[in-house]
Amino acid sequence: MKIKPYTPDNSTLAYSVGVTLDRFIKKKQDDFPFASGELSQLLRDIALATKIVNRETNRAGLSNIGGAFGQTNVQGEEQQKLDVIANIRFTRALTKGGEVCAVVSEEDDEVIDLQNSSGKYVIAIDPLDGSSNIDVNISIGTIFSIYRRVTPTGSPIQPEDIMQPGNQQVAAGYVLYGSSTMLVYTTGNGVNGFTYEQSLGEFFLSHPDICAPKTGKIYSINEGSYHSFEDGLKSYLDHCKRKEYNARYIGSLVADFHRNLLKGGIYIYPKTKKSPTGKLRLLYEANALAFIAEQAGARATDGKDRILDIIPNSLHQRTPLYIGSTKMVVEAESFLEVKQESIHEK
């Protein structure tokens, strides 16, 4: 009997489909600070829920699950049916996976105790970001943060397990449901993106080692609130126009952030007269994207301070957000500082 060693077949008859998310997670498990398998399984649970939500969003126009649900969430925002469905899907997947002890969700007033005291992780999640765009077929997303609980396993959940600053995240990611569905995540060792291949039911590595451009020519902000912005921000936006930067604003945080991460740009959701503390949520929106941004070489602040260093004081705390290419964020901050200094001088 003859035995020959395997050599890769580079025939064009069967092209390589690439590295699956599952294989990538297994290969990278040694990068995790607590590499005992739980975090790997947790990421798989999130990926599974993502596939289910992807299926639901793709058939929303055909199955009467679009439109408003008829209730408002804790933010005072009208819930869409898919908001509720996505929240159920992710919570159910995380419960059955067994690695999570508690979930903080945009769609729930209080912390969800999964009654799994042996779980080592806490999840903060926006199950369906930009859901008001569902009915007009515009990209939407999911944002998640993963924290390791600080109290001993086996004991009840405590506030200190939940109210952790973003610099304590062990992983974070987002999912973009668009022309293709992408899952992008980091465990603190760079950022990698995976595209969903629907016919195979698998995520494949499509964007390895994402690095954000240091600068760009895109600025993303809802300029409809221009007259409610502080003077320094108005000056920065005028500067962008003089430089003939491109204004691009989808209205889905994940979609706007993803585009700028790849192409170079800045996303701004500032404080306004109507929302003096900002509108985006710190725990399950800003922290996750800030972690990803920094891992990709970008920057995220509230206009002054690093997002990841903000100590949360409430579950649904809001914050302004300046995030994107480092040089653009620094430049925007400089305009804010100049105006702030002139106010103090007066």
Task: Characterise this structure.
GO terms for molecular function: fructose 1,6-bisphosphate 1-phosphatase activity; magnesium ion binding. InterPro entries: FBPase_C_dom, FBPase_class-1, FBPase_N, FBPtase. Residues 213-336 form the Fructose-1-6-bisphosphatase class 1 C-terminal domain. Its EC number is 3.1.3.11. Homotetramer. The longest helix has 21 residues, at 38-58. Helix 2 (38-58) runs antiparallel to helix 3 and helix 5 crosses helix 8 (326-345). The protein has helices at 21-28, 38-58, 81-97, 159-162, 231-242, 253-263, 282-295, 326-345; strands at 68-72, 78-80, 100-105, 112-113, 121-129, 140-148, 169-177, 181-186, 191-197, 202-207, 218-220, 246-247, 266-269, 280-281, 299-301, 318-319, 321-324. By secondary structure, it is α+β, with helices and mostly antiparallel strands. The chain has 2 domains: 21-207, Fructose-1,6-Bisphosphatase, subunit A, domain 1 (Fructose-1,6-Bisphosphatase, Chain A, domain 1, 2-Layer Sandwich); 218-345, 3-Layer(aba) Sandwich (D-Maltodextrin-Binding Protein, domain 2). The mean pLDDT is 89. The protein is built from 8 helices and 17 strands. The strands form 4 sheets. It has an 8-stranded mixed beta sheet with strand order 4-3-5-6-7-8-9-10, with helices on both faces. It has a 5-stranded mixed beta sheet with strand order 12-11-13-17-15, with helices on both faces. Helix content is 31%, strand content 24%. Strand 8 and strand 9 (191-197) form a beta hairpin.
